[in-house]
Design goal:
This protein is 22% helix and 13% strand. The protein is of the alpha+beta class and 443 residues long. Helix 1 packs across helix 6 (291-301), helix 5 packs across helix 6 and helix 7 packs across helix 11. The two termini are 22 Å apart.
Length: 443
C-alpha cells in the first residue's frame, strides 16, 4: 500500500464505510513533494506528465477556436495560485439567473447563467468578413446578480476521481443528521475511457465543481474547454459521437455570423458545424478522445496532492481537537480516503490521502450562491459542495466568490448547515481561534 505520508499522529480508530481500521488522523504528505509535482506511483512518467502540463499551460488563439466569448485564454491562466493546477489568484467568473414561482431559471435563451467576461473583439473572419463579437452583459431580467465563482484547485483530484460512489454515499449516511450532506448523483456525458465502469448516460456521484455537478475529470476538462475558453470539441466513446461539448457559447445567446466565432478550421463531415476540434467518424465502435481534453484529464489525474506544512506543530496539536469539537470535521472531514484496488483511472491503488472534504453538497443558507440548473428549487440553489481544504494556504482568496482573504473570515461567513460550527468558533477564545486557523492552514 502506498501511503502519501511521512508520519501519522496517533488518533482514534474509525469503522465507517471505506475506512475500516484506518486512523482518523492527519496524513502528512512528504515535505519534499513540491506543489504541482506528479503523483508518485502513477502509470505516467515524468516526461509524459511534463507534456500534459505544457498542454494545460498553453494559451489558445483564434486559430485554435478561442472565443467568440471566453473567461481565459488557457487553463493555467486561472489555475495558477501556488503552482499550475491551483486555484485562481485573480480571476473570478460571474453568474446570474432568476427565480420564477420559486424555480430557478438560468436564462438559457440569454446565454445561460455563466457570463463570459471577455470577447475576442474585432477580427477578419474565415470568409473574409469583418467580425466583432459583442461582450456579454447580465440580462435585465436577472434577479440573481453577478454571483462570483472562483476557480477551484486541482491538486490531488485524480485520487478523488478514483473513489467509488459507495464511498461518498456511505460517508453521507454516517454524518450527523443536522449536518448530513447529500451525494449529488449526476449523469455522465463523457465517460472516462480508462474506467470500465463508466458509460454515456450512466449515473455517478458528482464530486467536482462548486456544486458537485461534474462526475469525472474528463468531463470537467471538456466542460471547461468549452465554457471557459469557447473551444468546442467532439470525441468518440465506444462508437458513439459525443457532441455535448460541440456547440460553443454565443454572446447573450445571439449566434454570430458563420465564420465569425473564431478562426478554427471547418468541422469534418458528420460533426456539428462550428465544432472547433473534432476527432471525426466514430465508425467501428472506436473510442477516441479529443487530444487537448485528454491531455488536460491526464495532467489533472496525475497531479499530486499538496504537501502539509508542519512548521507550527504546537498549534496543530492544540487546534486539531478544537476543529473536531466545534463541528468543522462534520463536513470538512479528517477521514482518510484510500484508493481502490485496482484504481480505475491509473492512480496508484491502496493510496491513503486526506482532502478534508466529504465532497457532498450541504445547505449553506445565506452563503449558498442561489445558482442552479433549470427547475431547481430555492433550497437546491443554496447547496454547495464542501470545498477540500488541503492546500488552502496556497489560495489567496477563499469561499466560492472570493469574498474572504483569510480563514477566519471564511469560517464566519458560514451559514445553514455550517452555522453551528461558525457559532462555536466565534465562542472560542482568541488563542483557540488562532489554533484552529493555524491547523487549517497546515492542511
Amino acid at each position: 500500500m502506498l501511503v502519501l505520508a511521512s508520519s501519522l499522529i496517533a488518533g482514534t480508530m474509525i469503522g465507517a464505510a471505506g475506512c475500516s481500521d484506518i486512523q482518523e488522523e492527519d496524513i502528512f504528505v512528504e515535505q519534499n513533494a513540491a506543489l504541482g509535482d506528479r503523483l508518485p506511483g502513477t502509470s505516467t512518467n515524468d516526461t509524459n506528465f511534463a507534456a500534459f502540463k505544457a498542454n494545460f499551460a498553453a494559451t489558445e488563439e483564434l486559430e485554435d477556436g478561442l472565443g467568440p466569448i471566453f473567461n481565459a485564454e488557457g487553463c493555467a491562466v486561472c489555475h495558477d495560485a501556488g503552482a499550475i493546477g491551483g486555484a485562481s489568484a485573480t480571476r473570478i467568473e460571474r453568474r446570474y439567473g432568476r427565480f420564477v414561482n420559486g424555480v430557478f431559471d438560468p436564462l438559457g435563451n440569454r446565454g445561460g447563467s455563466l457570463r463570459q467576461l471577455f470577447t475576442v473583439g474585432p477580427f477578419t473572419g474565415l470568409n473574409g468578413q469583418a467580425c466583432n463579437p459583442p461582450l456579454e452583459v447580465e440580462p435585465a431580467e436577472a434577479t440573481v446578480h453577478n454571483v462570483g465563482r472562483v476557480t477551484t484547485p486541482l491538486f490531488g483530484l485524480g485520487l478523488v476521481d478514483s473513489m467509488p460512489d459507495s464511498f461518498f454515499t456511505g460517508m453521507a449516511a454516517s454524518e450527523p443528521s443536522a449536518t448530513r450532506g447529500i451525494a449529488n448523483i449526476v449523469a455522465t456525458v463523457l465517460p472516462n475511457d480508462r474506467d470500465a465502469g463508466q458509460s454515456i448516460g450512466g449515473m455517478r456521484v458528482g464530486r467536482f465543481g462548486w456544486k458537485a455537478g461534474v462526475p469525472n475529470l474528463l468531463q470537467f476538462a471538456a466542460d471547461a474547454y468549452l465554457n471557459e475558453m469557447g473551444i468546442s470539441t467532439q470525441s468518440c466513446f465506444k462508437g458513439v459521437s459525443v457532441t455535448a461539448f460541440a456547440t460553443e457559447s454565443a454572446p447573450n445567446g445571439i449566434p454570430q455570423p458563420a465564420g465569425c466565432d473564431d478562426l478554427a478550421p471547418p468541422a469534418p463531415a458528420g460533426v456539428p458545424a462550428g465544432t472547433d476540434d473534432a476527432v471525426g467518424s466514430c465508425a467501428g465502435g472506436i473510442t477516441l478522445i479529443q487530444k487537448d481534453i485528454d491531455n488536460f484529464k491526464r495532467f489533472m489525474t496525475n497531479l499530486a496532492p499538496p504537501p502539509r506544512d508542519l512548521s507550527n506543530s504546537g498549534a496543530i496539536a492544540r487546534g486539531t481537537p478544537l476543529y473536531d469539537s466545534i463541528g468543522c470535521a462534520n463536513c470538512h472531514t479528517r477521514r482518510v480516503f484510500t484508493t481502490p484496488s485496482p484504481a480505475p483511472n491509473g492512480v496508484p491503488s491502496g493510496t491513503n490521502f486526506q482532502p478534508f472534504s466529504d465532497f457532498l453538497v450541504h445547505d449553506m443558507g445565506a452563503l449558498g450562491d442561489m445558482i442552479g440548473n433549470a427547475g431547481d428549487s430555492v433550497a437546491v440553489t443554496r447547496r454547495m459542495r464542501t470545498a477540500p481544504l488541503w492546500g488552502v494556504r496556497f489560495r489567496p482568496i477563499l469561499l466560492h466568490d472570493g469574498r474572504c482573504g483569510d480563514v477566519t473570515c471564511a469560517i464566519r461567513a458560514h451559514d445553514g448547515q455550517g452555522a453551528s460550527a461558525r457559532d462555536a468558533f466565534n465562542g472560542l477564545t482568541a488563542a483557540q481561534q488562532s489554533d484552529v486557523v493555524n491547523f487549517v492552514r497546515s492542511m
